[in-house]
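Memo to structure team: turn this sequence into structure tokens by end of day. - J.P.
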Amino acid sequence: MDNRKILPFYMTYPLPLYYEDEHELIKDMEYLQGQHPLEIRTLQGEIVQFMNMMDYSGSMIYDEYPDRFLLQKYGKDIAEKVRRKHKDDVENPVHKMLDWDGFEEIIMLLLHEEILKRRHRRNRGYLRF
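Reply from structure team:
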């Protein structure tokens, strides 16, 4: 008598279930980014506009190791653009953030989050094989 256990098809090839975990991670990340304060969400909008220009096939944001100095330059460019855009607009919630010492660091953090989200949304992330 044959005592071997027969496995269902989905148990023999579990990799598609692995990818669902990554999609859940991105959805959670997007939800939590939506919970940021109004000032940070305004900055996220500026970064998304910039990243839309950088999001093309062969872009450096999809490199295995993106260039650190170029990312710093992009962060400084975004910070300067935001400063020019909102320096006279006292009503805008970003205006009070412009003088913070860590303003450029906040921009860099949001830029890295957006790059991570785009890399995994387009199935080019380092977790994909």
